[in-house]
Every structure is written in C-alpha cells, then in structure tokens.
Amino acid sequence: MRVFAISDLHVDYAANARWVESLSTSQYLDDILIVAGDVSNSLQQLEWALKTIAARFKKVLFVPGNHDLWVVNDDRTTSLAKFAQVCTVVEKIGVSMRRFCHNGLSIVPLLGWYDYSFGQPSQELLDSWMDYRACRWPSYLEAPDVAAHFEALNDVTEVARNEHVITFSHFLPRIDVMPEYIPEQKRVMYPVLGAARLDKQVRKLKSKMHVYGHSHVNRRVHIDGVTYVNNAFGYPHEIRIASKHLLCIYPM
Ligand SMILES: [Fe+2]
Ligand SMILES: [Fe+2]
Questions:
Q1: Residues whose beta carbons lie less than 5 angstroms from ion ligand 1
Q2: What is the pLDDT averaged over residues 5-11?
Q3: Whole-model pTM?
C-alpha cells in the first residue's frame, strides 16, 4: 500500500478534468490518495471528480479548500451550508474526511481556514481576493472565527507512540513553508494562506509529514522534525510551480 498526495485539482478547468479522467484505473487499486482541497467551485463537479478518483484507489481522503466552499452562483445559501453539502456528497461516494489508520500508519485530515496569523490583509488584498465575494459566512463570523470553527472540528487525539503519522490540510500551517524566491508583490496574499494554529495540531499529533495545498507552489521542506509537502496540481498555466503528477509520500 502506497500513499499518494495531490491538491488543487480545480477541475472547473477542462484540461484538469481530463487529467483526472486519464488516471490509471488499475495502477492504484491498493493505494491511498490524499486530496488536500480545491477540487471545484461547483458541488456537481466536485462529486464527479472525487467519484472518478475514488474508483481508481483503495481509499481517498479529502478536506475541502476555499474554492469548494464558494457559493458565488447561489445567493440563497452560505459557505457553512455548502460545507455540510460537501460532507454529504463525500460520504455518499465513499470518500473520507476522517482519520484513516492501517498497519501502524495514521493519516489525519485537518480542516481549517486563514486567521490572519500570517499578517493582516491589505486593502489591495481585501479588494482582490475572491473568497471575500465568493464565500458567504454568517455575519457574526470573521475569517479568524471561520478558522477557529473548522479547527475545533479536527480530531487531534494523540496516536500510539510507534504510529507513523501523516497529517494534511488545504491551508498552510506555517508561512515559512513558502520559499524565499516568492517576489514581494505576491506576498500580499500571505494573510489568506493559512493559520499558525494548524501547526500546533500537526505537532500535537506528532506528525512526521504534513501535506498542504492552497499556495499552488510545489514544495518539500523539513522544519523542526516535520516534512511539509505541497503537490498542488494548480491552474493550467501554472506549469513552473506545479508538477502535475501524483506524488508518492509513503513509503518514501
Ligand atoms: Fe487552489
Ligand atoms: Fe485554496
């Protein structure tokens, strides 16, 4: 049994959907796939993509990303209601958002959002970041409250000492996973990349490896005993920062 990781499939793009469809129907039947969020803005497309993937793997583990909670085309609903719908769809097609344990290996999903622990958003970001228009939260919830809401749903029960733990989230658990080469003008996005409290959960779980998505910048970096991995598929034009293949993360 191998464990593969991918995130940010964004199957709203036809080229990305074709890639999902082209995945082998025989090569991965004994394997696990972590899908770390941002499958689609549309619930129907999300269902199609996860169902297509689930037929190709022994087990698919998933957490939603910000795009999966967009409600831009439906002004009658909220992103909390969309989260509930995503959970129902995921459950129905046999994909899991719960901890997976098998033969000394534990894979733990961590829900989250951004909480501005990586910086306060500038006016430029408030004006340009699509989530501020495409997500709809109850009026009493600001982004940091949304992050706290999702983090509180996470199962952070510690595992047995000899378990090998892999954690995964859509959002970044720390900002120093971003490479040095990111230009200053792109760093305006850092406040909406993740939440430092997620890393507390990663470490409480004694994770050896944490898979994250969202930044679309492929990366493997070792910090204080944890290997952080980003294997985002990304948008079709992102060929330099995303490698566009499944990454085997266990055994390494
Ligand atoms: Fe994404
Ligand atoms: Fe994202």
A1: 8, 38
A2: 98
A3: 0.97
